[in-house]
Write a structure and sequence with these properties.
2 domains; mainly alpha; about 0% strand
Length: about 260
């Protein structure tokens, strides 16, 4: 009788021990699985973060817009009030102002992310750097060249342009400015690890951006003279699309090398 009770007690203990071991193994298996599988940073999370950062740094993206307005406002005062001269120089003046405002605004694209550790966190978290670069550049374009394209309509009262010419001018800025931004971003990423790299960005970017400026102003002049400038605008749009697809990968590689250095 006593032996049977002892055997029953030992059986209960063994069953409880086996249950505890199984629960521990399941817990370890689930914890190890959670540790192995990394958390993926989604497109929406990156977009919301960059949008909030851009809104908080309003001074940084308002300065290029103020520079654009100062240039296109002072240019007619310096040239004179002759309508024909203003119409002939208006498109070039607006495009030069847009180009300078774009180049001056790329200094803060990636430098703060490198200094405050955001770039290091993205690399360690194995986030998609090309996706982050693309989101950052799209938001920067909206707050810079997107607003500049709308402000270019001020060429109607300032340079005596027609609304048709002003519309073509705005279309040329919309189609050509993404390519300009990508070239400026590449220059900014190449000089990121240098002490005074911001000074070199315009020197590197402007020679590559001059053909875009020439083609864009030429397209507006063709429309103003009654000719077809759509092929030039299509060429600018194709170049912008290719640069948007390719340049984020190039920039992400240069950012990774800058972080490693």
């Amino acid at each position: 009788m006593t032996d049977s009770r002892m055997q029953a007690t030992n059986g209960d203990v063994d069953s409880k021990t086996a249950g505890i071991n199984d629960h521990a193994n399941n817990s370890l298996g689930s914890n190890s699985t959670e540790n192995i599988v990394p958390r993926v940073i989604s497109f929406g999370q990156l977009w919301r973060r960059e949008w909030q950062v851009k809104q908080q740094g309003a001074v940084q993206w308002l300065y290029p817009l103020v520079l654009f307005l100062v240039i296109i406002t002072l240019f007619p005062l310096a040239v004179g009030s002759e309508p024909q001269l203003l119409q002939r120089l208006g498109v070039s003046a607006v495009w030069i102002a847009a180009l300078l405002s774009l180049v001056m605004g790329v200094d803060g694209l990636f430098k703060p992310a490198l200094d405050n550790g955001t770039l290091a966190q993205l690399v360690v978290a194995k986030a998609s750097l090309p996706l982050w670069v693309l989101i950052r550049l799209i938001i920067h374009w909206v707050f810079s060249s997107g607003i500049v394209a709308v402000l270019s309509l001020l060429a109607v009262p300032l340079f005596q342009l027609s609304w048709f010419e002003a519309g073509i001018l705005m279309a040329s800025i919309v189609t050509g400015s993404p390519m300009l931004l990508m070239l400026s971003a590449v220059s900014s990423s190449l000089t990121l690890s240098l002490k005074n790299g911001a000074v070199l960005v315009p020197l590197i970017a402007l020679p590559m951006q001059l053909p875009v400026l020439i083609f864009a102003t030429g397209a507006v002049d063709l429309f103003a003279s009654g000719l077809n400038g759509l092929p030039i605008l299509a060429l600018l749009l194709a170049g912008s699309i290719i640069s948007v697809l390719v340049m984020p990968w190039v920039i992400s590689m240069t950012l990774r090398m800058a972080w490693l250095n």
